[in-house]
Amino acid sequence: MTDRRLLSVAPMMDWTDRHCRVFHRRLTRHALLYTEMVTAEAVLHGDRVRLLGFADVEHPLALQLGGSDPRKLAEAARIGVAHGYDEINLNVGCPSDRVQEGRFGACLMAEPALVAACVAEMRAAVPAGIPITVKCRIGIDDQDSETDFQGFIDTVAAGGCNIFIVHARKAWLAGLSPKENREIPPLDYDRVYRLKRARPDLTIVINGGIGSLDEAKVHLAHVDGVMLGRAAYQTPYVLAGVDREVYGGTAPVPTRAEVAEGMLPYIEEHLAGGGRLNNIVRHMLGLYHGRPRARAFRRHLSERGVGAAAGLEVLVDALAIAEGQERSEADGALSAAAQ
Asked: CB 3.0-4.6 Å disulfide test: which of 115, 205, 309, 328 passes with 225?
């Protein structure tokens, strides 16, 4: 069976919503996708259709939860599995003030016994075949020694987690914004490699600052998987080569135009249900990154795709611009794809 964990796309707040994930699935069939973080409280008391709904095409798909109450996390995990998620992930890596105030995210690295208790309750609440995983940092604040990090991993592993996704930077919980925490603390990939060597029994996935499939393949010589974050979102066509280069597939790599065309039925259904075009095309702005006319493509979608009346013709025109086509050529190609 294909190891879906070889390449995954990180959970990113305000970015990896259901529309983004459908778009990413047009680029790769095999990569593991993650939801945005959803708090256990929201799952228990919120609108589950809105919070947990997804399209079948998104599989394999993991639900990322935030929280620190073992009982509530266990119930949220059970609900997630009932909704069809393939994995339940606990966020122990987000450093934002709002998340800290809720006593979850990266601040939990200071409480490994609590994280282990959360994992144990979640593990007991879901079927054995559903992975319970943890996404964490290599440390926080002054608690960032190799001993601290490996002690955290060992404690949480004893609670029943054998899959860790490690962002290879520590987090400063005070003084740095979430954005700065993704850029300022130095990357230490070797620490993650050493963790894998010390605990070969665990599945270790590395995350942080990885911008290409060539870089990903270098990491795969040392760890079990690679998670792409901003690169997958801002330059999404990097995902088009995943199935061949990482998973050994033989299907042709889709062109950018084919990816856009493949989104048309989904967009059409979304619009027919009262949704707005920008809900979807905002995730597609980077599709032509690095190509001629990429800026014009992005500008057209950004300016013309935001109105309540914006329809498929906005994407038709943007694609014609990007491909250097006459409008009539793009109309014909996209009309055929929509049928």
From this structure: 205
